[in-house]
Every structure is written in C-alpha cells, then in structure tokens.
Amino acid sequence: MPLAYRHRLQVAGFLLSMLGWILTGTCNYLPDWKNLNLDLNVLELWTMGLWQTCIVQDVGGTQCKDFDSFLALPLEFKISRILVSTSNGLGLLSLVISSLGLDCLKMEDTEQKLKKQLLLIGGILLWLCGVLVLVPVSWVAYTIIQDFWDEDIPEIVPRWEIGDALFRGWFGGFFIILGGSLLLSTSCLSSDHQLPEQYAMADVQDAHQHLEIGTGRL
Known about the structure:
Layout: H1 3-29, E1 34-39, E2 43-48, E3 52-57, E4 61-66, H2 75-100, H3 112-148, E5 161-162, H4 164-189, H5 196-217
Antiparallel strand pairs: 1-2, 1-5, 2-3, 3-4
C-alpha cells in the first residue's frame, strides 16, 4: 500500500472513530432514548434516558429527575447503561492507543513494528466499542417498536416512541466500526512501516549492486 494513501486512510479512520465516540458519549447521557407525547391540560413530552427522565412542557419549560434506584430501571436500560458506559471508556482508551500507532507520529525505525501492533490493537478495540453500543441501542429500539404495535394494549393508551438518542447511538456505533476497519486495513495490508528515506537508500544500494555486477562482467 502506498505510504501517502495509507496516511490518508489512517487519518480518516481515526477522525471517524473520534466522531463516533463523541456521538455515543452524547447518546449515553441524553435523556431521550424514548419519548411519550401526552396531550392533557397542556402539551407535554415525557422523555426517558439511561440516567434520568424529563418532562417538557410548552409553557413550563423542562423538568428532569434522576432515577432513584438502578434496580428500578427496565432490564434493557440496566444492560444498556452498563454496555454504553463501558463502550465510552473503552473507546477513549482505543483512540489513545490508535493515535500512538499512526504513521504521522514520528518514531525510531526500530519502533515501527510496535506502531503496527498498536494500530492493530486500537482497531480491534474500536470494533468492540461499536458493537457494545449497537447492541443495547437496537435492543431498546426493538422493545419500543414491539410495545408500540402490541395489540393487547388499548389504542387510547399513549405509546412510547424512539428518541433522538438512539439515532446518535446507531450513527456513532457505525462510525466507530468504520473507523476501526480503516485502521485495521492499513495495519494488515502493510507489511512494513518503512519511511521514504529507507526506500531511497534501498534504491541506491540496488543501483550500486547492479553497477558492481556490470563492472565485474566487463
């Protein structure tokens, strides 16, 4: 793989992974994993996230409240809180490891093999981070859709709907996996992280060898 092309892929993969990590971080703390519209005396929007619930009123603003107990959460929210938080922490570690393996970071020639290993580890961890987000987000979305179309629930009962935080989680997980895949491709397809100076020295040595062979034959 050409050196300049590999540099571009590494930078693109790292930036995509960072963007995905930011989106999943906001997904974790936004209180609108699912929404419920209520038209009572005033128009109200109830939202529920992993850490708090909020009531948004047209006239009274927004009021949010943290959950009193972890055990009071629905099962899918308990698991989602653990998995998404783990993904956020592991994602930060993955970005640090991947940044140390980028070619734009100058290191000694003897440490080029270490950079390749760091890039490989960082890409694998990023893949894991993306999966840890996509699984709970998709699970919560599935339960919302299942309850929305449940025929046993009377039609007059308001139904929860998918919130904006879930879309951030989907996009964030996808970007993290895509970025990790680009980093892995640059690590696996390149046999050695040689510098341009090394290529030049190799060409000079080959030229000298050809000249010596030609002189010997004469």
